[in-house]
Amino acid sequence: MAISQLSLSICVNCSKNKYEVTDASTGSVTAPITAETLKVTYPNDDSVTLDLFDNDSDTLFGKSLTSSALSASSVSISFVPAVIGTYSYEFYIIYIDSNGDLAYEPISASSTSSSFSGAASDIISAITTASSTTGVSAVYNSTTRFIDMSGTSFGVVAIANGTSNVTVESVNAETLADGKYTVTWSLTDDDATYSASTESYFLCNVECCVRGKMADIDVSCDCVGDKKNEAAIEAMLMLQGIKAAAACGKDAKADKLLEGLQAICNNECKSC
């Protein structure tokens, strides 16, 4: 067996509203790869399955994926111009289609340009071609050397594939939704079919809320029963409870605690 273990890990970057999926497999792929998919399930149970085999250089094996928050209004991506020859730039735009379903559009561009502006022009052309479907437009930012994409509600998934090095850099207007994300990766090579799945709770928003409440604690108050202090401590305990429940595989309990903490953070908890 060529791949002794197919596995992946998730790292969340709350400050940039993006997450990264990294291959943690052992062994090596036995060429050729004949099928490969990556399924991302969001906290609301909507999911999107990316067909990586359409562009087989996108394989995650030995690479990593960065994904922005869904429902963003602005996403910036970085890229590397060609040094010699032709570079291919491939990523995915995730959007809500006319039926209200989660969908994706693969974006594929190639360029021989060794300049940022030249390569950006080729990538933007591919984004523009798909804009009638995705509703996403793009411009080149000569100051940051990023491509700034904008739309009403979308996300971007970028998979490093050697030459393109397209990476999600920043996301504006929306934060990653709190809750459980499941990423399932399936790969078929000349040896066998492998699959791996990982679950991760994203808690960016409630963690920010709890930090704010803890920062507001009046340390000079030695009285018992201060409502603001008690609310902050309760919120911290609930946050730790979510993490503990998730770590133990008690998803229903984690979801219930998250719902309660979100109510506190949104000032919807009438008993607090």
Task: Tell me what the structure shows.
The chain has five helices and 15 strands. It has 272 residues and is an alpha+beta fold. It has two domains: 3-202, no CATH class; 204-265, no CATH class. It is globular and about 70 Å long. The relative contact order is 0.18.
Describe this structure in a few short sentences.
The chain is α+β, with helices and mostly antiparallel strands and 272 residues long.
List the helices and strands and how they pair.
Elements: E1 3-5, E2 8-13, E3 18-23, E4 26-27, E5 35-41, E6 47-51, E7 64-68, E8 72-78, E9 87-96, E10 102-111, H1 116-129, H2 131-134, E11 137-141, E12 146-159, E13 167-172, E14 179-188, E15 193-202, H3 204-215, H4 227-247, H5 251-265
Antiparallel strand pairs: 1-4, 2-3, 3-7, 5-6, 5-14, 7-12, 8-12, 8-13, 9-10, 9-12, 11-12, 14-15
Helix pairs in contact: 3-4, 4-5
Total number of distinct structural domains: 2
Low-pLDDT stretches:
none
Question: Biggest sheet: strands, sense, closure?
Answer: 9 strands, antiparallel
The gyration radius over C-alpha positions equals: 21 Å
- The N- to C-terminal Cα distance equals 57 Å
The count of helical stretches stands at 5
